[in-house]
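Project standup — Tuesday

K.O.: blocked on the structure for the chain from last sprint. Re-posting the sequence here as requested.
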Amino acid sequence: MKMVIFGLTVSSSWGNGHATLWRGLCRALAARGHEVVFFERDVPYYAEHRDLHALPGGGDLVLYPEWEGALPAARRELEGADVAMVTSYCPDGVAASELLLASRVPLRVFYDMDTPVTLQALERGEAVPYLPPWGLGDFDLVLSFTGGASLRELRARLGARRAVPLYGSVDPDVHRRVPAVETFRADLSYLGTYAADRQAALEALLIEAARRAPDQRFLIGGAMYPQDFPWTDNVFFVRHVAPGDHPAFYSSCRVTLNVTRAPMARMGHCPSGRLFEAAACGTPILTDGWEGLDEFFSPGEEILVGRSTEDALHALRLPPEELARVARRARERTLDEHTAERRVRELERALEAAAARDPVGAGEPLEPGGTLSLEV
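H.V.: unblocked you, prediction finished:
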């Protein structure tokens, strides 16, 4: 199968989670015998922080300065493609959608990696620049980074004919336990780009916990934090943690925190890729709670749930052997259910079902290196 993708970025992990996810998926797709071509607009913001120059697994990364200049290559790649995909936050999402929908590609896919954010903007009457103004009804398949109510809303609000989840994942060859690094040493750490709608939970679960546990060390890693962020003397900061340093970041702390963006938490069924990365590194996780969390990890057994500062302090008071048990169970489940290779198999089944016009969404996986069988 040849897949052509028009996305936000795979070349820079700065301030976004799309890149890390796509790197794992591209490697897994290649391992399954598939060919990937990824089109990314070469914007200065990501170019200044580029930390990848070739797709994992040997696919083609096409960096282009502006859409018109990319059209000849895009048309050429689409001619031989089995699947074409546009993702949310693709800076040329509408133009790319028009191109692939007008092409003869057998399967046209839209992957909303930010579904609750998309739906929230629509509720507010705001323009969503990466969405085709006519909706998603012309795509053969709509994938969503979140499940549950998000899928129903994609059908009702945007006309998606077939909407299925493709959740976050982890590449266990990249995210694994490594020796601790002093720079990342912490009792409780948090890795994530600043977002205003995460601030209340972050303050309750980390900042206030730090105030009440002055003898412990807290660490935040990420970009875009404002100057007026409420730092305390025992909260330390690393401005950007490159993907290659994520395993050391997680391996160097006793507990790591996950905070979900508010629109995603409200919709539920929204596992961040950070959950699976930390779990694969064997680090116990404290997360905010949301509907559907128990579909991915068992609360109290494989993951700790925090709704208050006291919950965070309780997690830090747990004995080392209990934290180790929680981390071990989460890692086992992640390696069984939440790897990039597992997601690629799920993607293959979704594509086969869409190609067969299967109303249930079932279907056999696409054979490695095979092509889709379509009735035309």
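K.O.: great, moving the ticket to review. Confidence is low (pLDDT under 50) at residues 360-376. Residues 320-337 form the longest helix (18 residues).
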